[in-house]
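Full entry
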Amino acid sequence: MASKEGYRLEQEAFVSNHEGSTWQEVIFTLLPNVCGILLTTTTLGVLRKYIDRNVTVVVEFILIVIPTILCCTVLSEHIISVCIVMIFISTLNMWLLGNKSIQLSKLDVRPITGKRPFITNFRALTNIITAICILAVDFRVFPRKFVKTEVYGYSLMDTGVGLFILANALVAPEARDFSTSRQTEFQETLTKNIKNCFRSCIPLLVLGFGRFVAVELTGYQKHVTEYGVHWNFFVTLAVVKLFTSMITSTINSKYSLFSGAWILGMHEYIMTTKGLSTWVLGDAPRDDFFSANREGLVSVPGYVGFKKTSQCWILYMDIDFDNYTA
């Protein structure tokens, strides 16, 4: 019987040193999520008179979650076929809806204000695909091409943090000042924003610390070259949120695209010309906190720049931030 440490090493080897697939395949793997939303919406439209509203949760699970699970596992080689079937059924549903004698004047149609369904759907799908990948990655039924790449490349799991950063950027509380002139003093604004942001970061930091402790106590595999020894996904989200709030308090939010692009450009410049990428990807000893967590720390500026560029979309959307939790 293998020792606890030996089993842990086998687990780490199982999720390490993978090269991923292609960016086209990653996009196709995410498509069943989107097709599931279309299929669910049209199906519920056809059956709205025959099913109870409480049953819609079951319908959504069957038409969104299950196809996504199958496409990430046993049907990973048949994703396009699955999407074609889902689109075909959705088209049939729309044809049925179009042939129904519906008088639009009698329907309670209201303009969409405040909460945007597409943002809610995007955030929900991000959570679904992330949960599936995290739970399935330790099993052989999950293709190794979907596991995070070791150095460079594209994979399904590589989209995880980026999707969460984008989802959070679209509903970030600090973005509520995008269309307003700053009347308060700089120091007051900065202090207030950082205080509020730090308060909202506490749950993420608690989750990050809890995950670290849980991994150590259970002997679960640690893919050190992913984030570092102590760093993890939750800590990255918290730190990115904090730095983004500081930048938003310093630079007017209408310049998000330019400030984000500048951060991304400088990050790439330093990574490629100052030897930072060599240090991160090399075998340097992890004898202090910074070197032990270099992957997580060095990735922060890139995620901050990405979040800032993503926030520019809020300029064009009338969003009621009170309807969302970032």
Q: What stands out?
A: Residues 186-218 form the longest helix (33 residues). Residues 103-109, 178-182 have pLDDT under 50 and may be disordered.
